[in-house]
Amino acid sequence: MTMAAASRPTTSTDGPDVAGPDPSASPRTSAPPTPSAPPTPPASSAAARNAKRFIIGIAAIAALGGALFGYDTGVVSGALPFMESHFGLTSLGEGIITSALLIGAAFGSLAGGRMSDTLGRRTSLLWAGAVFIGGALAVALAPTVPFMVVARFALGLAVGSASVITPLYLSEIAPPHIRGRLVSFNSLMIVSGQLLAYLINAVLARWEAWRWMLGLAALPAVALFVGLFFLPDTPRWYIGKGRTEQAARVLRRTLPADEVDAELGRIHQARALEAGARRGAWQDLRTPWVRRILLIGIGLAIVQQITGVNAVIYFAPKILESTGLGTNAAITATIAIGAVSVVATAIGMSLIDKVGRRPMLITGLSGMTVSLALLGASFHLPKSTAVSCLVLGLMVLYMGFMQATLNTGVWLLLAEMFPLKVRGLAMGAAVFVMWLANFTVALVFPVLLDAAGPSVTFWLFGLMCVLSLLFCKRNAPETKGMALEDLEHELRKTAAGAKTEG
């Protein structure tokens, strides 16, 4: 019922451009060859401006899911020091409360992939938005540690679902020439959500108002939930459900008129390759070429987590306190990490469609390795304000490399590289593993930090960067500038070739 309601606003807002059946596209396509050239540029220019506004609107609303993802993962860094004294937490207790959201996100990502294939990308995001609202309020009002753990697990279900569905939605609705930037906009919103969390943490820390820190996530969740009622689903999902006219309506709002038929043809061709097979069943993942791509996607998901990014995001104040900074100063200092993450992600967005995915990953992992090696060494210096500044500077450098390259590139590749038939399911599986790796890091890091010390801990992350660099050089695909259906064809050939060589 929700999706039927969604199709009506789409029809009404399209107005005269989309009235009537699909053949109405033909007159618009055949009009440009007429001799009267002067009227054509203004019409074309107006259509381009309308398409740009439509795409920006979609990105702004859908990527609120990314902002909530970032806020809910980043806010715990400021709340933990006060929760530690309020609940009497040990290092293991800190890890459990932090990682409860992450294990929920793992299962949420798995369910989100399947749900997005069945209900649609937009409707699935609506469900995630509703859970975001309830989960944020439950976490803020938690009276006990067990209640807090359960509430953060429930909130994690929404975070995990949004982490799969949002980039999937954006990748399928974006024109190929800006797909990288549009999907990367979700990464920008994630780090913007984290920066917002750090800023709010710093303001509220003086009153130790940790419940307000957690509860304010409900506000953008309401904006996401309401905004989604004004968005269509993606052309690829509509065609997968046999709703070609609705797919054409969306394409006519995102592409020049003379490209709509070609794009519809590409999507239909990809669907034809899947004729006779069940859509998105688990057994489809056992097809050799699909299985190889899935394993590469899972490998990239693990790479993003084992290289240490979320140890810094979740525990930056704890790390800085170990250098001698006070609690409030450490919480305030993390704003620098959030600010650099936003700037770095914006830089990554501007480069990803020019430089390509593979070069970005390789460059980023090289810079991260050096940063972590220096960061580990800095903890052998005597505690002082200067050393605290050095540690903060090296964490900022590390996060700059990470957010501009690896974080942006991995989320984009996961949204692009899987075949249409199993895209939601395969991405859900890869992100499920990503969240499990995230959960493991969050649970183990505070214990490892106390047991082995920060120096050894960050050197271990540096070693993971080296291994990840080797993996990416060997396996990461390049997807720059290709339509998703053309990309699927190329990946199928590449996987078949690799199997033959093996």
Which overall shape is indicated by the principal axes computed on the Cα atoms?
Answer: globular
Q: Could you tell me the radius of gyration in angstroms?
A: 23 Å
**Topology, number of strands:** 0
Amount of beta strand: under 5%
* Strand-pairing-aware structural class: mainly alpha
Order of helices and strands: HHHHHHHHHHHHHHHHHHHHHH
What does this structure look like?
Helices cover 80% and strands 0% of the residues. The protein has 502 residues and is mostly helical. α14 (257-272) packs parallel to α22.
Provide key terms for this protein.
0% strand, disordered N terminus, single chain, 502 residues, mainly alpha, 80% helix, 22 helices
How is the secondary structure organized here?
Elements: H1 2-14, H2 25-30, H3 40-62, H4 64-74, H5 76-87, H6 91-119, H7 121-140, H8 145-173, H9 179-205, H10 210-215, H11 218-227, H12 235-240, H13 244-254, H14 257-272, H15 288-306, H16 309-321, H17 327-355, H18 357-378, H19 385-416, H20 423-452, H21 454-475, H22 484-501
In short:
With 502 residues, this protein is mainly α. Helix content is 80%, strand content 0%.
